[in-house]
Amino acid sequence: MFRKYSIASFTIVSINIIYYLFICAQSGNFLTKIVQGPGYDLLVAYGAKENGLIASGQMQRLFFPIFMHVNLVHLLVNMFGLWSIGRIFEMIAGHRNLFILYLVAGITGNFCSFALLQNLSVGASGSLFGLLLCLFIIQKYEERLSKQFKRPTQGMQFGRVLLVNLVLNIIFGFSIPIFDWAAHLGGSLAGILFGFALTTRHKWNLKFILSSANSMQLKKKFFERHRIYYVGIILLNILFSMAFFNIKKYQIIYGKAIESAAENKNMVMSYEDLPQYEDILVSQNEETNPENMQNDAIFLHENGYFFAALNLYEVLYTLSKEGFGSEQFSSDSNKVLLKAAIELAKQDRITIATMKKYNQKKIYNKKNITEICAKPAALYMTLGFFQISGKLYECAYALNLGNDEYALKGIESFHLAEDTQGINQILSMINIADKK
User: Fold this and answer.
1) What is the pLDDT of residues 252-278, one digit of tens each?
2) What is the rounded CA–CA span in Å between residue 107 and residue 299?
3) Where are the transmembrane segments (predicted)?
């Protein structure tokens, strides 16, 4: 019975599957990605809902997520729902209305998610919930008409189909990291309004045809005008879009940072890879020579830049433990010195006398003091040592809270190094700086 009513359903399901395979194909291990999913960075790169990027003008992120999925299970669950529900809806309301509602419910769901939920999210479930709730309204209307005209109901077990899909999506939704209850809510509200629009229009036509004596005298009441429900969907989206006024600076910087990270093709280097770059980092560039960096860290410490000095000390201690740099720098005595400096910087206390003797005084001015951390950060990032560059950019941002580029690069580095704590530290600093 559904064969001639599945054109739109088949098209929508096909688009979802093809787009999922296309995104997975952008990574090296195609078969693994199909099962496990394209991953966070590819989702960001190809249109996932991310509040900061939407607020920065990337409005396409309200559209593309309705065709994107986290992994194969997520895709199969949603496609099962769309195939089973979509054909029923298509038979009742037609191909055009299925396409329209799929887009309207999906976009409304993403607007609602933008307004109420900061998490990155993807999935067709907002559209699916819209179809489910729209069918529910149609079913209730059909039951009322059947009762009114004393005819058997044509419910076709909608209730069971709706319940299975609803429970399946909710259970699965809580089992994946990108569960978006707000998109489900927005899609559901759009589906309810769309259902009222369809049934109200049908109801008026039916009353006009079936009424005999007073058919020409019937007047549409306000809520019997189907257009009012379409207006309601528009107003709902406008209401959700008011979240643009509440978007925070740190959200925009974070969004841009992870987008940049998603496009970064550099290989992530580990500390074991440091020796092959020793000539570049120690001999050819003064800014990244560990001994010069240690002098700079002591200078910052002595002048009260405790947090910046702490970040620089932590980088130096890591390099020293890895045996990087000169014998003096990687010696046990210098490791002890750096460890003591880290503890003093944490307590906002000035350096000890032994450390002052190590320091060879340099003169800095307010314009170039951030270069103490920013210059080595750029080189370490270019080479792919993202954990180190993240710490150094955090140091640079601490020295100049007005430079959002340092914050952005720091978050990008920490994201590539999978350091959540580092990301959260910089986000907190942006928030504090923004309030000031």
Assistant:
1) 999 999 999 988 766 788 888 888 898
2) 53
3) 7-28, 62-86, 98-116, 122-138, 158-176, 182-200, 228-247
Partners of 49 in the beta sheet? Answer: 121
Per-residue pLDDT tens digits for 152-183? 555 555 566 666 666 766 666 666 656 788 99
DSSP state, residue 280? I
pTM of the model: 0.84
Q: Is residue 260 assigned to a domain?
A: no
Q: What is the 3-state secondary structure (H, E, C) of 145-156?
A: HHHHCCCCCCCC
Are 137 and 155 within 8 A, CB to CB?
no
Q: Does residue 422 sit in the same domain as residue 278?
A: yes
What phi, psi does 121 have (nearest 5°)? -150, 155
For residues 145 and 209, is the Cβ–Cβ distance under 8 A? no
| C-alpha to C-alpha distance for 315 and 114, rounded to whole angstroms | 37
Contact 114, 48 (CB under 8 A): no
Paired tokens of 420: 């959540």
Neighbouring C-beta atoms of residue 159, cutoff 10 Å: 11
Q: Determine the straight-line distance between the first and last CA of the chain, rounded to whole angstroms.
A: 65
Calpha distance 171→187 (Å, rounded)? 18
Query: Rounded to whole angstroms, what are the CA distances from 55 to 58, 60, 243, 433?
Result: 7, 11, 9, 20
* Residue 255: inside a domain: no
Identify the helix (H) or strand (E) that includes residue 229. Answer: helix 227-241
Minimum mean pLDDT among 71-75, 197-201, 270-274, 349-353: which range? 349-353
Q: Which residues contact 48 (CB under 8 A, 6 or more apart)?
A: 61, 64, 65, 68, 120, 121, 122
Q: What would the mean pLDDT of 407-435 be, rounded to a whole number? A: 92
Tell me how far apart the alpha carbons of residues 291 and 289 are, in angstroms, rounded to a whole number.
6
Number of domains in the chain: 2
pLDDT confidence of residue 181:
86
Instruction: Give me the pLDDT at residue 219, please.
Output: 56
